[in-house]
């Protein structure tokens, strides 16, 4: 099957196989969160799976904090993966009603197996497309999209996020955002690296600049609330991922992974692509 024919990113197929085989590094590093890590002191990263898990949890908490959650609250985590973000919120807060949404039922199954609601929290798992959310209008205080929006139809997702957020609610997300001079290049799929990226990460769209995000927000009744550039704090991620790929049995897939991830590492180090945490506030009804 061509990677573009599946709604599930190829790296999840590899990761689920590694977890099923009992790969301890995969279970430790990615059994909860499947996204980049964040180090307050990148030089202190030690390259271990346990250190990576802590960095991924730190990233998750930073994105959730940008949503300004105030219990009691209703939270929609779109592209919820293995449920790590909801697990983190479940441990940190009480009186949350949380809905995890993912297009891949395998990920939702693992999430449901791994996350048990704490005392006053409620958790629901829903299989759905981010561009067509089966959720009520103006029903949520926060919408989260942790390192997954590049898989979505952005305009439709922004419209859906705006629809389900109450006035004053917040959409918080993280993304690889190109500098203006890179945006047109990224629209073409990262040039020579496009095939490696497609076979590693699936169909991804890293062409939305910060200006593009502000325009999407304005078109959907939202405004940019905050923008945090954490690119430098994510850089140890690349060393960890590339070192791990050296030990994969499937050398063909490992080489594609190293090409794609190496290209993204170079672009990130040069800050041609920035890892941003963005939050957007849903504005009130202007007719009122």
From TrEMBL:
InterPro entries: Erg6_SMT_methyltransf, Methyltransf_11, SAM-dependent_MTases_sf. The keyword Oxidoreductase does not apply. Its EC number is 2.1.1.164. One of its GO terms (molecular function) is S-adenosylmethionine-dependent methyltransferase activity. The keyword Endoplasmic reticulum does not apply. It comes from the Bacteria. GO terms for biological process: methylation. Residues 77-172 form the Methyltransferase type domain. Keywords: Methyltransferase, Transferase. It holds the Pfam family Methyltransf_11. This is Demethylrebeccamycin-D-glucose O-methyltransferase.
